[in-house]
Automatic annotation (TrEMBL):
Subcellular location: Cell membrane
PANTHER family, per database record: INNER MEMBRANE TRANSPORTER, S-ADENOSYLMETHIONINE_S-ADENOSYLHOMOCYSTEINE TRANSPORTER
Pfam families (alphabetical): EamA
GO cellular component, one term: plasma membrane
Transmembrane regions: 12-30, 45-65, 77-101, 107-126, 133-155, 161-181, 193-212, 224-247, 254-274, 280-297
InterPro entries attached to this UniProt entry: AA-Vitamin_Transporters, EamA_dom, EmrE-like
Protein name, per record: DMT family transporter
Organism: Bradyrhizobium sediminis
Keyword presence, S-adenosyl-L-methionine: no
Key word Iron-sulfur present: no
Keywords, alphabetical: Cell membrane, Membrane, Transmembrane, Transmembrane helix
UniProt domain EamA: residue ranges: 17-149, 162-297
Record Gene3D superfamilies: 1.10.3730.20
Length: 299
């Protein structure tokens, strides 16, 4: 079985890839205020771990219903474990904890400096030399995010510093996972690949959370149960499958820059649902960020 696709790093931009990327951005974007709210009713590790394990089981069941094999070739296990660690475990733990110190909008914006790190890593690792348009797109999108952060009054205060460090750590880890997924692709169908990565990544989080945290299921509100459904089915099942499908169809740098739509959606959704700040300056910055994303998809 051939495990490495030598053309993976030079994947063309396809309409299907952009559609999957859009589904990912919407699913993950709305999940930021959803998770922030759920943290008021559930502890972070239990929340992220248990919903992930349930989501992985649902994906595995869906794969079987579609007659897709869940069997993993022995040679794929090391890269599968690494992908689960970087794209799921590290991301879920660090971002879940970051939300304890940061508003959802600020955590989302810091997290999605990820395309900067992915673009930096894609050149030496994948040979994806940045084009002029792609570089302009990255600068536009990142400048828009920086303006939003400034508009929200984000500061590296002592109180916020742990959250900022965790969000940056999660962003860099996810960027590395994105680049390595192109360097060493998992030649599996998207649904089984997502089921294994989410399951392997979230299982240890769930175990640790259940051992060290106290969870009061009876205290979960009716709204909380609906949001748990969203976090489990939409964020884990649909958005993660769409992400792996997009990554298989797009260059790593384009996929990474495209995810900058996630904090745009997250900031707007957090403003509406959680009443976090969103003024004219932030709106202008959001438009600038989206313009960078559109330019990236055309590069």
């Amino acid at each position: 079985m051939k495990l490495q696709n030598p053309t993976a790093a030079r994947a063309p931009i396809t309409p299907a890839g952009l559609l999957f990327l859009a589904i990912t951005s919407v699913g993950w974007g709305f999940n930021w205020p959803v998770t922030k709210y759920l943290l008021s009713e559930l502890p972070p590790l239990t929340l992220r771990g248990v919903t992930g394990v349930i989501g992985a089981c649902l994906l595995a069941a869906l794969a079987l219903l579609r007659r897709q094999s869940l069997k993993v070739d022995r040679a794929l296990w090391p890269r599968l474990m690494l992908a689960a660690l970087l794209n799921v475990t590290g991301w879920m733990v660090l971002m879940g904890l970051a939300l304890l110190w940061l508003p959802a909008s600020e955590a989302a914006l810091i997290a999605y400096t990820m395309p900067v790190w992915a673009s930096m890593l894609a050149w030496p690792v994948l040979g994806e030399r940045p084009t002029v348009l792609r570089t302009i797109a990255l600068v536009m999108a990142f400048a828009g995010l920086a303006a939003i952060m400034g508009g929200n009054g984000i500061t590296a205060s002592a109180e916020k510093l742990p959250g900022i460090i965790m969000a940056l750590g999660g962003a860099i880890g996810f960027a590395l996972g994105t680049v390595l997924a192109k360097k060493y692709p998992l030649q599996m169908a998207p649904i089984p690949a997502a089921a294994w990565q989410i399951g392997l990544g979230c299982f240890p989080i769930a175990i640790v959370g259940l051992l060290i945290e106290t969870t009061h299921v009876a205290a979960i509100s009716p709204l909380g149960w609906w949001l748990l459904f969203y976090s489990t089915v939409i964020q884990f099942c649909i958005a993660y499958v769409a992400w792996f499908a997009a990554l298989a169809r797009l260059p790593a740098s384009v996929a990474a820059i495209g995810t900058m739509a996630v904090p745009v959606i997250g900031v707007v959704a957090s403003a509406v649902a959680l009443h976090e700040p969103l003024g004219p300056g932030q709106i202008a910055a959001l438009i600038f960020t989206l313009a960078g994303v559109v330019l990236a998809t055309r590069s």
